[in-house]
Amino acid sequence: MTECTLCGSPVGDDPATAADVDGVFCCEGCLATFQRLDETEDVSAEDLHEHGHDHHAHHEHGSDHEHSEGSETAFLSVDGMHCSTCESFIETSATETDGINDAQASYATDMVRLDYDPSTIDRGGLIDAVSKLGYHASDPDEEDEGAEERFEFGRLRLVFGGLAAMAVMMFYAAFLYPVYLGYYPESFLSGTSASLIAFVPIFFGSTIVLFGVGFPILRGAYVSLKVRQPNMDVLIAFAVLAAYVYSVFALAFLDTTHVYFDVSTMVIVVVSIGNHIEARFKRRALGDLSALTESRITEARVLTDEGHHDVALESLSPGDRVLVKPGERVPIDGTVVEGQAAIDESLVTGESVPVSKSLGEEVVGGSVVTDNAVEIEVGEEATSTFDRLVELIWNVQSSDSGATRLADRVASVFVPVVVTIATLATVGWLLTGASIGQAILIGVSVLVVSCPCSLGLATPLAIVSGVREAAERRITVLNATVLERITDTEIVAFDKTGTLTTGEMSLDGVRGDDPDELLARAAAVETRSSHPVAEAIVAADRDRGSDATARTVTDFESHARGVAATVDGERVVVGHPGFVRESGYAVPEPIDEQVRETRSDGFLATLVAWDDEAKGVLQVGDTPRADWAEVVSSIAEEGPRVVVLTGDDREIAERFSGHPDVSEVFAGVPPEAKEAVVGRLREEGTTTMVGDGTNDAPALAAADLGIAMANGTELAIDAADAVVSGDSLRPIPAFFAVARGTRRRLRTNLGWAFCYNLVAIPLAVAGLVNPLIAAAAMAVSSLVVVTNSARGMGIDPLPDDPTPDSRPSIAPAEGGSPRATDGGTREV
Fold first, then answer.
1. Alpha-carbon distance 395 to 702, whole Å?
2. Which of 240, 251, 262 has its CA nearest to residue 196?
3. Which among 92, 272, 315, 486 is least buried, having the fewest CB atoms inside 10 angstroms?
4. Sign of the C-alpha dihedral, residues 714, 720, 726, 728?
5. CA nearest to 129, candidates 151, 102, 147, 107
6. β-strand partners of 188
7. If you compute the radius of gyration of the chain from its CA atoms, what whole number of angstroms results?
8. Which helix (H) or strand (E) holds 605?
9. How many whole angstroms separate alpha carbon 803 and alpha carbon 800?
10. Going by C-beta distance under 8 Å and a sequence separation of 6 or more, which residues neighbour residue 307?
11. 117 exposed, middle or buried (CB, 10 Å; 0-12, 13-18, 19+)?
């Protein structure tokens, strides 16, 4: 079947085309988006298709992978991925199992996607294949009861190791440090009793810490070496093992009491605490892809001559009839063949108002039936728009998840360099006539003094400090790297519905000769409807002190574009202007002009008619957040360009294009095209996307950085890097300020850590630094990093949120003219 040139979705029998455009499209929105993108730069259809369908295919783990014939895809949750190199390890090792054709792991989401042959291996075999690599794999559709226990075990292991480390340091303080500092003679530890009392507890305590608490670090080092991508774990492992092995060797074979179990012990504890703090924040984001896979519909209610029965979604064939009851989600794309219902498509299309669907109209998988049951016939290709969104989010997220942090990139060079320097220093001193003990001591000094404690803490402590500052300003960070990336933002793209607006319908004005009577009659009819517009009208009437239920309402009728009923003996029609005309009511020219003005002001125009003609217009709209204009201006003042994306039509989006700091508004953008628009914006500059709906999830994942509103859908939040709490947008510009402070702090930390190593390593090679001084220098270096990270940023706290109920007063709208715009709105 032909695919859409922009988004790759199947094109039906009636494709959208244009004479001046080379390609076919699944809908008018994709066609218009293609044209809009094509206006900005001379690009080919293939380039735009790459944006819409697979614009990240050039990444290492993008969607360049193709399924083998007859294969299926499975998502697994994986607990125990310690660093980004675990991705390569899992991907390389899992494919060695018969039946697994391809594996794509994501450290960012703790998920792995497997392309497998179901005739060779089942889901249980997939879980075993990943679990035997040393991880804990589970089906995301099932609750992993052991996840909490494993996390708690890790915490207890750290606490126990901390107690063991304290014991080690107490024995050092009581027995070894006084000897090292000259308070006691060396002979103080020469006796058997003294040696047993001092060295045995120290040896066992440091061993417990190293191989107990330090096991994840040692395992991470092993994995990174196995896949030939040395990271910070390798550097830490080399240093602590060198100090530990030398200390054991010194106790056994050298006539010295200078051992460095304290170095290996404290390095492990400090780094493990940092890793645990990082894991806590990462744990909050677990379920990133799990929420998506859990939300996938797995069964459909198929109608047959014998009745109806549930079947697996994969078993559906073109032409099958599926029954969907009120409150249920449509399992698959299809056409309504029986019944009429209001369909909430906000999950997939972003439309803020449910759409009425009747015989012959298409519905999309993932949307929700709100009132009446409908029967749907499966189309020529049994596909689900929602499932395509799931795949789209995975492709975008996993393509970026393999990027390593700055410290790991440095370590890939730093590790072999330091090991080489230590080896050469040891050999060099041996060649100059130094004793074996002295030469080994200098080699260990190089490794210990270059121990990456400060380097390892520089990034996570700065990030944790930034995360804390962000949390105080009602921003929850789900991806630690967001604080490093947001400062590069050149474009901020806002979704309209639910982001710049509250996402709740409200009555913003009444146009007519008798506004009170107009609203009262409309509310009386709408009390029988559950449509969001109806609820807004009834609520507005109630706020005025009126009681719509006191009127006598009979003969109620609900239609696709409006409702009608007899109110106190007189027929009243409420709805779309076209519906009112079709019902036989005249629309006078002044009322028609009010309709045009209402739409120009960005509101839905709902007519109220009785006595053979329309009597007035109700302005219904999605209430803008009280602080949206202020926030847009604050962001623009810092440099980024602000654009707005919406699935609504051009007229409703006009109110935002009038803001002087909104450079452009993309209106009528379908969900797949939103991702494509964001991809195109990324070519113009680093892009941050702010949204709340599930249809925003691909765009949030596709952007360089995604920020979701906490009152949005779970899928959008899980696709984001950060979440805004409360009803205000003010945390967003504050977040930019926190990120800038974090970047400064990060650079200071890394600068100090690198300078320390540049000075300390040559001194150790020259034999001017013994391991004890090296350990002290390392501690001071770490203390500087910790102190710098603990400082406040001096950013003002946020003011109180605006009152959630604040909205324009509902009063008769007067005359007025269409709001002027700067021409920045594009309907796509």
1. 9
2. 251
3. 315
4. negative
5. 102
6. none
7. 33
8. strand 604-610
9. 9
10. none
11. middle
Tokens of 62: 């993008």
pLDDT at 192 over 90: no
Q: Specify which residues 79 forms β-bridges with.
A: 136
Q: Give the separation between CA 526 and CA 558, rounded to whole angstroms.
A: 10
Residue 619: phi, psi to the nearest 5?
-90, 110
Domains, the chain: 1-54 (no CATH), 298-383 (2.70.150.10), 504-623 (3.40.1110.10)
Pairing relation of β-strands 334-338 and 341-344?
unpaired
> Measured on CA atoms in the order 488, 490, 495, 500, is the torsion positive or negative?
positive
The token pair that represents 277 in the structure block? 């703090």
Amino acid at 297: I
Nearest Cα to 2, choosing from 562, 381, 432? 381
d(CA 346, CA 495) in angstroms, rounded, equals: 13
Residues catalogued as catalytic: 495
Spatial CA neighbour of 305 closest among 320, 287, 293: 320
Q: How does DSSP assign 514-540, residue by residue?
A: SHHHHHHHHHHHHTT---HHHHHHHHH
Closest C-alpha among 495, 677, 601, 638 to residue 39:
677
Classify burial at 815, counting beta carbons within 10 Å of its beta carbon; exposed 0-12, middle 13-18, buried 19 or more.
exposed
pLDDT digit string (tens) for 256-295?
A: 777 888 878 887 887 777 666 655 644 543 444 444 455 5
Distance, CA of 643 to CA of 753 (rounded, Å): 40
3 state SS of 100? strand
- Tokens for 610? 């009785």
Helix (H) / strand (E) containing 440: helix 436-449
Question: Could you tell me the CA-to-CA distances from 324 to 160, 371, 372 in Å, in that order?
Answer: 55, 11, 9
Start-to-end CA span in the chain (Å): 25
Q: What is the pLDDT of residue 414?
A: 72
Question: Which pairing describes strands 307-312 and 299-304: parallel, antiparallel, or unpaired?
Answer: antiparallel
Percent of the chain with pLDDT over 70: 67
Which amino acid is located at 182 in the chain?
A: G
User: How many helices (DSSP H) and strands (DSSP E) are in the chain?
Assistant: 27, 27
295, 298, 314, 365: which is closest to 335 by C-alpha?
365
User: pLDDT digits over 758-812, tens only?
Assistant: 888 899 899 888 655 665 676 577 667 767 766 666 666 555 544 333 333 333 3
- Return the half-sphere exposure (C-beta side, CA atoms, 13 A cut-off) of residue 767: 13
Give me the helices (H) in 473-570, please: 482-485, 515-526, 532-543
**DSSP E strands, 269-331:** 299-304, 307-312, 321-324
- The percent helix, strand, coil of the chain (3-state, each to 5) is 50, 20, 35
Q: What is the DSSP letter of 488?
A: G
Task: Tell me the pLDDT of the chain averaged across its residues.
Answer: 74
pLDDT (mean) for 684-693 = 86
Q: Which residues make beta-bridge pairs with 573?
A: 564, 609
Token pair for residue 595? 């309709």
Spell out the residues 6+ positions from residue 107 whose beta carbon is closer than 8 angstroms to its own.
81, 83, 84, 86, 87, 401, 402
Per-residue pLDDT tens for 332-373? 888 999 888 888 766 555 455 677 788 888 887 777 888 788
User: Helix crossing, 731-765 with 406-431: angle to 10°?
Assistant: 10
- CA–CA dist 609, 577 (Å, integer): 10
| Contacts (Cβ under 8 Å, ≥6 apart) of 180 | 258, 772
Taking alpha carbons only, the member of 686, 603, 679 closest to residue 645 is 679
The pair of structure tokens assigned to 63 is 């969607």
Return the beta strands (E) in 441-569 as ranges: 475-477, 491-495, 501-512, 553-559, 562-567
Q: Give the C-alpha separation, 722 to 470, whole Å.
A: 10
**Residue pair 697/659 in contact by the 8 Å Cβ criterion:** no
CA distance 794 to 307: 68
Distance between CA atoms of 72 and 74, rounded to whole angstroms?
A: 7
